[in-house]
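Usage

Read records sequentially. Each one opens with the input sequence:
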Amino acid sequence: MSEHNLLRVLEIGTEGAAGYAGKLFSRWGAEVVRVDTGSSLAVPTRLARATDLYLHAGKARIAVNLENTGSLEVLRRLADHCDVILVDGAAPALDEIGFETLGGARSQVRVAITPFGLTGPHRDWQGASNVLLAMGGQTYLMGDEDRAPLTMPGRYLAYQAGQFAYTAAVACLRNHAKADDPLPTDNLDVSQYEVAQTLHQFTNVMWTFGGNVRSRHGNNFGVIHPITMYPCRDGWFAVNADPIFWDTFTVMLNRPELAADPRFNSVAARVENAEALDAIVAEELGPKSRAELMELGQVKCRMPTGVLSTLRELLDDPHLTARDFWQTLDAGDLQLKTPGSPFRFVGEAMPSPGTPRPPVDATEWLAATAGERGHA
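and closes with the structure output:
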């Protein structure tokens, strides 16, 4: 860690991945210096402002127009004062700012988050979340077999990559803190394309050990049933009746005799006779409300049961409210109800998401911090 004893992170990016990693650093006490460049300097829409507030509240903000002469020197000087450097974007854009030389020997951890990584034949390709989900095989698995594939909207892969970047950077910092002598700078290469592969769950293992290519088949999990969603009187509910809970599920259905029924008394049999089982579920549970199903499943039967909640229901969820999960960010004319941290220290309050901070001039920031490291 640096001589100022406060972990300082430099964040440069426009894709959301570095922003999310920086958000995690900021939430847990680091000073994060966010450099706004290029398109991020444009006048944002209200939705873009809300996203900006979600990602960057609590960070110091410095605007650097990379088209201006001397901007790269400003980036290098900023990096010299930071312990961690987070950069996202396509690899050629990182080349233009000299990513691999930012910070020099003074920076402990340097992290690049790119669509395809810093090496390989696709190194210079452009990518976005929906493109990388498609190329990474995720989209192939979503939706019904006889219909168009589905995808996830938004910045799912970018935020997942940001979490990997944050975790790896913290591990490197921990290693540096334990060392008796200064260690060389760690250079981390996070590929969002490879993040998509990492999140495939058991799909790769099915092929490696079983020779089976997983297919797109809607709500049916394919290898165990029922792990699926069903319609009910006022919406949808989900159950996870894996082998551990199968007998319990027959009780929830009020059909305990099904446990011994040869059509359903094994995993393979339930998969083979999924349509017949679904018809029974629809008959027994379909007429019930979501509230009734939660009471029956979770309280009475102790069965993994959930309902498909709307975003409004989640914002008003009494469990999340009791745990102080939702937090409010106030930017004057814009208030945003935002998720808290998915982890916290037992017995401690939810960490603050930070408050919006006005932009600062790079020269002024450098002058204010110059004495901490003995150089300007």
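Summary fields computed downstream for this record:
- Residues 227-308 form a domain with the formyl-coa transferase, domain 3 fold (CATH 3.30.1540.10).
- The mean pLDDT is 89.
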